[in-house]
Structure formats: C-alpha cells, structure tokens
Amino acid sequence: MTDDDTQNSDTAGRSAASDTADEYVGAYDKLVRDDVPAVVRADGNRPVTRRVDGGEYERYLAAKLVEEAREYADAVETEGSGANDGSDSDESDDVLDELADVHAVLDAIVDESAFSQDDVDAREREKATDRGRFVDGVVLERIDAGE
User: Fold this and answer.
1) Cα–Cα distance between 23 and 59 in angstroms, integer?
2) Cα 59 to Cα 105: distance, rounded to the nearest angstrom
3) Taking the CA of residue 54 as centre, how many other CA atoms within 13 Å lie in the half-sphere pointing to its CB?
4) pTM above 0.85?
5) Could you tell me the residue ranges of all domains in the chain?
6) Is the Cα torsion angle 12, 39, 54, 103 positive or negative in sign?
C-alpha cells in the first residue's frame, strides 16, 4: 500500500480531480491483505485506504479473525452439504483457502503481540496436557448434576 492510496474520508467515492461523484463501488472498513489495493487498481478502480497500528491494528486483526473464521465455517458447511466424494473439488479448495486465511491472520496476530510463536506453541502444549486437544471430536452437550 502506498501513500497515494490514502484519502481523506470526505473524498471517498469522489474523483480527486472533480467535485462530482464517481461511480461508488462500496465501503468496507476492514483489514485487507497488503496487495489488495494493487489488485483494486488493476481492476480499474481507486482504493481509498488508511494504515492502522497499535491497538487499532489489533482490533482490526481480531475482527478479521472472526470474519475469516466465519468464512471457514461457511465453506465447511457448504462442503458438507454437497456431494463431495473426498476428491479435490471447488468446495475443498474453498475450505483450504479459508483455512489459509485464518492461519495468515493468526500469524499476523502473533507477530503483532508481545508473544513469540514459540510462546504460543508452548502454551498450546500446556493446555493440551491439562485438558487435551481437539482431535477426538468430543462435543459437550450438557453436564448433569452428580450424585
């Protein structure tokens, strides 16, 4: 992203050379991959962006994680509802794409945090030792009172 991508919010959707509104494509206010503005320009549109850092960046990363996790869940649901024979399919590619997006956001969150990947991995192992992992597919439906 370059500085020429950054516009004042009151110029969003308007040509810099004119006071008349250009065709407005849409508003997003969401964190995107670093190369998305170049893709938008290549499509013949003008991205209006800004950079965030610190706590604001962490909040945008958290929102992006929720967005990508929902997209992953939707892809899994779509794959499960289709006639998937286990071979590579568009639905499987969608699941892999969304899983990669979740992973990329988690990597960015760790990079931005005060913790290293080793710290996160060590805590994951501690929690696995304490309470187990998520490999057996255990779903807790309820807890009944003991005798």
Assistant:
1) 30
2) 12
3) 1
4) no
5) 1-51, 54-116
6) positive
